[in-house]
Design brief:
By secondary structure, the chain is mainly α. Helix content is 71%, strand content 0%. It has one domain.
Length: 229
């Protein structure tokens, strides 16, 4: 018999039952994404309000926070999709944008690279568990390709002498690595910290997404200023 879309999901230390507010910290800290989106919108308006891909990024950040809030309150199969799909949209969308905006790849080449990245993401769990069977890092292993992408594109930017975006992406990678650490130890930390550490994943990722969106918007605004001078 197929599992219902309303089947409860209990993945995190803070959740002790199936009630709506069983993860108060995990739910409330999704406000970090809302704040990131609000500040990103302020930066977008200050930069001229004409960078539509930048505005789309801000919208996705807001949707990420909304989807994550739904998952940490309803905590079932449909809300898990509401959580993971916007995250995937931001990852692939930003990867494509970074290749086009920072590295100046042609659209076909950027789309092909994004497709390869997506394929690597799909096969990565099999590769991971082939080397480290049973080691899921509380499910955080699935985000390692995103970390690798930040590091790779950041380094490529530096090689291409696109320094500010390169350093911004590497800084975001460092914060993201720390957030992955806290996500990975949530279950292990339960005995010492009943609320767990997953909420720090939200707070730090709000910073990561803001850093990324801010750099994309600032870089585009800088390009427009050069073109008009």
């Amino acid at each position: 018999m197929p599992t219902s879309w309303f089947t409860p999901v209990d993945n995190y230390c803070e959740r002790i039952d199936a009630s709506f507010w069983s993860e108060p910290l995990n739910a409330a800290t999704n406000g970090a994404f809302v704040l990131a989106a609000a500040y990103g919108f302020f930066l977008w308006r200050r930069a001229g309000g004409r960078d539509w891909p930048g505005l789309a990024l801000i919208g996705v950040i807001l949707i990420v926070g909304t989807g994550s809030f739904l998952f940490h309150t309803f905590a079932n199969r449909w809300s898990r999709l509401a959580d993971v799909l916007p995250i995937a949209l931001f990852i692939y969308g930003y990867f494509l944008l970074a290749l086009r905006r920072f590295l100046r790849l042609r659209l076909v080449a950027a789309l092909a690279a994004t497709g390869i990245f997506a394929f690597f993401n799909i096969v990565f769990p099999r590769l991971w568990f082939g080397v480290l069977p049973g080691v899921s890092l509380d499910g955080s292993n699935g985000y390692i390709p995103a970390l690798a992408a930040l590091l790779t594109v950041g380094c490529l930017c530096l090689v291409a002498k696109v320094q500010r975006p390169g350093f911004a992406l590497l800084a975001a990678a460092g914060i993201f690595a720390l957030s992955l650490f806290f996500r990975s130890i949530d279950s292990a930390a339960c005995s010492a910290f009943p609320s767990g550490t997953h909420f720090l994943w939200h707070v730090l990722n709000g910073v990561v997404l803001l850093v990324l969106a801010r750099e994309a918007i600032a870089y585009q605004a800088g390009d427009r200023a050069k073109a008009s001078s």
